[in-house]
Amino acid sequence: MSPMAEVDPRVARTRNDVLNTTISVLIDEGWDAVTQPHIARVAGYSKATVYAHWPDRVGLLRDAFARYGDMPHHEPTGELRTDLIGELTSFRSAMVDHRLDRAMVVLAERASAVPEIVDIRDAFTQDGERPVRKILAAVADGPELEAAVRMLCGMVVHSVFMHGAAPTDAVITAAVDLTVRGIQRG
């Protein structure tokens, strides 16, 4: 299809419905429930329709996880501290409001057992880290940039997974301030 070709609205709606259903089923029912027949049934489409768009389960999951990249992010202001706090707050919201934590658990667990899922995990991680990486690239590079991205994004993930609650505004602000001070001293 050429870049200028219009997508049939019915096809777009079907893809949207099926991909949203895939994430919901994955979160609510788990990995084993994500099959084309089950997704078709829950989404209200025929198996043939789902198989026509996603002949294999990995493709269906890849496209479903790519949807998380469409989540709202902080609108950059050009101010390092404000942008980092804003983006981490957006990440926290995704973890809580969109149940991203549940999807991440399944993805991480399955990537260790299903080699085809590693590429999905890696793309998902890169997409999720991209805004923080872009903000920090103005003040850091190389291993320092990598460490800062992992510390800040990891702080949100660790809070949710290991402490059972998303980080507060105060914790996000403190993490950003500590990281920025560390970069500026380096």
* Count of separate structural domains: 2
**Separation, N- and C-terminal Cα atoms:** 49 Å
Helix tally equals 9
Total count of strands: 0
The CATH topology of the largest domain corresponds to: Tetracycline Repressor, domain 2
Structural summary, described in words:
The protein has 186 residues and is mostly helical. It folds into 2 domains: 58 residues, Orthogonal Bundle (Arc Repressor Mutant, subunit A), CATH 1.10.10; 113 residues, Tetracycline Repressor, domain 2, CATH 1.10.357. The termini are far apart. It contains 9 helices and no strands.
Could you outline the blueprint of secondary structure elements for this entry?
Elements: H1 9-29, H2 36-43, H3 47-53, H4 57-66, H5 80-97, H6 100-111, H7 115-136, H8 142-163, H9 169-185
Helix pairs in contact: 1-2, 1-4, 2-3, 4-7, 5-7, 5-8, 5-9, 6-7, 7-8, 8-9
Q: Quick summary of this structure?
A:
With 186 residues, the protein is mainly α. It has helices spanning 9-29, 36-43, 47-53, 57-66, 80-97, 100-111, 115-136, 142-163, 169-185. The chain folds into 2 domains: 9-66, Arc Repressor Mutant, subunit A; 73-185, Tetracycline Repressor, domain 2, CATH 1.10.357.
